[in-house]
Amino acid sequence: MPLEIPEVVINRLPLYARALAELAARGEQVVSSQTLGEMLEVTPAQIRKDLSYFGRFGKQGRGYNVQLLLAKLREILGLDRQWRVIVVGVGRLGQAIVEYGGFEPQGFHIVAAFDADPALVGKQVGRIRIRSVDELDEFLRREPVDIGIVAVPARAAQEVIDRLVAAGVRAILNYAPTTAHVPPDVAIRHIDPVIAMQSMTYHLKLRQGTSAK
Amino acid sequence: MPLEIPEVVINRLPLYARALAELAARGEQVVSSQTLGEMLEVTPAQIRKDLSYFGRFGKQGRGYNVQLLLAKLREILGLDRQWRVIVVGVGRLGQAIVEYGGFEPQGFHIVAAFDADPALVGKQVGRIRIRSVDELDEFLRREPVDIGIVAVPARAAQEVIDRLVAAGVRAILNYAPTTAHVPPDVAIRHIDPVIAMQSMTYHLKLRQGTSAK
DNA sequence: GCCTGTGAAGGATTTCACAGCC
DNA sequence: GGCTGTGAAATCCTTCACAGGC
How far apart are CA A206 and CA B92, in angstroms? Predict the structure, then answer.
């Protein structure tokens, strides 16, 4: 498997996997890049090119076997195993994350949650008892953790992320509304609804005319 | 102002605006593209090129006036006004969205929330009383709505989005884990933590070696 | 006849590099 | 001397178009 696969390609693979899972649930045996592209609003050529980075999974004249391609993508993305996840920051947002039912079925197992607020420490959130953030470093030495979800206030995010990275965590999902810095060997993704909305208002403004004088 | 500004450029502007707001809060008067780039991990040339689509806001030898550039970006993005937002789907996730304190200070005013579950209708969430989704069309005829936040289960998302679009909503923030289809004049953004995590596991897998035999 | 896999072409985006101004 | 604004160059990404297999 060659080494330099564009990041944009990687970022599309989970969408392909999700669409294939839906097709599989519907009982579809086979899908063409055309049909998959319509589901995802991606051109068929792009799907074929993306997949070609990893191998040859289709059959000319037929398309792709749904189960087989799904299994391949799950293997490529590492979705065929469990990942250990912690949540740092268990305010309203963090609690919603811990209780969100969408992670576990996808193999993301939340193993612990931490907060700096003494009033929260010890509190039970779903299956998880909130720990003090003072225990974070010790916990990371003791327990393997693959992904850290950061849901602390913006001003605290960089420090928390630095501690996670120093302890060997190599993937960060950042909900804090701030641009955090990580070394090049650490993956980071940002979840930021306000930023997403602010890029849409640009288009709304164009549409509504610049009547505001 | 020329018409075709790349979408990637638009998507970076809110990040610039946020960094400038931070600088302004710190009392900084002036910033160079170099410094701004370090804050955001963007090259200085990219910042200058992006801004050049909209005008000439800097001074050679000095950099950009923080307040002035921030004001310009807020104007360009339409952040200098209030936007009316509704939330459809007020389960755990939707409730967290309605109660999230980060929207209002940025000018995103949540004016109503809707759910299909009779057990939720009438319930008070923060400032908002949950309405039946049956009232949605009527509400949209009566009240102006700029942005619809969709937090319903995946299988219901497309139908909800179609109704919003039919009623004239031109921006959708979709929290449902599905690819939704909208006409080209409607802006849509997806918030999907699972998809974000699944693109990071690809990198984790590489790192941890393919020891799993 | 249909649909994949893929070089080659085309298009979009980023970076370079420097003239021009403070 | 420092830093912007911007054409030109370089790079990256997408789409085309078709050979080849089913």
Answer: 34
Q: Which of residues 160-199 of B touch A (CB under 8 A)?
A: 170-171, 173, 177-179, 181, 185, 187-189, 191, 193-199
Nearest to B202 among A10, A108, A203 (CB): A10
Return the CATH number of the domain spanning residue range A83-194: 3.40.50.720
**CA-based nearest residue in chain B for residue A146:** B204
Cα B200 to Cα B197: distance, rounded to the nearest angstrom: 5
Give residue B206's pLDDT: 82
Average pLDDT in chain A? 95
pLDDT of residue B209: 55
CATH of A7-77, one of 1.10.10.60, 1.10.10.10, 3.40.50.300, 3.40.30.10: 1.10.10.10
Q: Which of residues 116-155 of A touch B (CB under 8 A)?
A: 146-147, 149
pLDDT digits (tens, 9 = 90+) for A66-104: 999 999 999 999 999 999 999 999 999 999 999 999 999
- DSSP letter at B79 equals -
B99 touches chain A (CB under 8 A): yes
Map out the domains of chain B as residue ranges.
7-77, 83-194
* Confidence (pLDDT) at A211: 40
- Please tell me if the domain spanning B7-77 has the same topology as the one spanning B83-194: no
User: What is the spatial distance between Cα A70 and Cα A56, in angstroms, rounded to a whole number?
Assistant: 13
Give the pairing of strands A63-65 and B171-174: unpaired
**Distance in angstroms (rounded) separating the CA atoms of residues A175 and A173:** 7
Assigned token pair, B21: 């707001």
Neighbouring C-beta atoms of residue A120, cutoff 10 Å: 20
Cβ-Cβ contacts under 8 Å for A170 (sequence gap 6 or more): A146, A185, A186, A187, B203, B204, B207
Question: H or E stretch including A86?
Answer: strand A83-88
A109-156 per-position pLDDT tens digit: 999 999 999 999 999 999 999 999 999 999 999 999 999 999 999 999
The alpha-helical segments, DSSP class H, found in A27-107 are 33-40, 44-52, 66-77, 92-99
Distance CA(B29)–CA(B50), nearest Å, equals 21
Nearest by CB to residue A78, choosing from B83, B189, B205, is B205
Element (H, E) at B43: none
Looking at every residue in chain B, the average pLDDT score rounds to: 95
